[in-house]
Design brief:
Keywords: Cytoplasm, Protein biosynthesis. GO terms for molecular function: ribosomal large subunit binding. The chain has 186 residues and is an alpha+beta fold. It has 2 domains: 3-27 and 107-184, Ribosome-recycling factor (Topoisomerase I, Chain A, domain 4, Orthogonal Bundle), CATH 1.10.132.20; 35-102, Gyrase A, domain 2 (2-Layer Sandwich). It contains 4 helices and 6 strands. It has helices at residues 3-26, 76-85, 108-145, 151-184; strands at 42-45, 48-51, 56-62, 65-70, 93-95, 98-102. Strand 3 and strand 4 (65-70) form a beta hairpin. The longest helix has 38 residues, at 108-145. 24% of the residues are buried.
Length: 186
Amino acid sequence: MQIPDIKKNAEHKMNASLEALKANLAKVRTGRANPALLDTVHVEYYGSMLPLSQVANLSLLDARTIGVAPWEKGMGAKIEKAIRESDLGLNPASQGDLIRVPIPPMTEERRRELTKVVKNEGEQAKIAIRNLRRDANEQVKKLVKDKLASEDDERRAQDDIQKLTDRMIAEVDKIVAAKEQDIMAI
């Protein structure tokens, strides 16, 4: 493996860490409705547990209400029960074939708790990125040790990897700040 491959691999893995952070933050509830909130809900369907999105159509009815339209008639009660029993604190209501899931407004205390969760997720992403930096630097050092690269190449590569790390950490900070702002907005 050459230095450009190491850098490209590190960048790819750091981007994957950013995507994981975005996916984790999408599950953190803000004051607005978002069908992604129900991604963690699983429903029993003919003996197996399936994600809600595989047994029903999820849509936004308005800014504070998610609509769940089951694909089969008999699934409504099971879906309602699964949403109610999830740890999301939601209370669905049936309306014919459609299940309405109103998102309650959040209290100031709950908003502060969620910002702590968001900061923690951001910190975990930063740790993952720093670990990737360390791994990439170790791979470069191994190339120098095996005499496949010069010490000048090592210094340049480590500088490039550090710049990449700084850029990724700044991106994490930006994503976390945007999510915190979203949570604290009333």
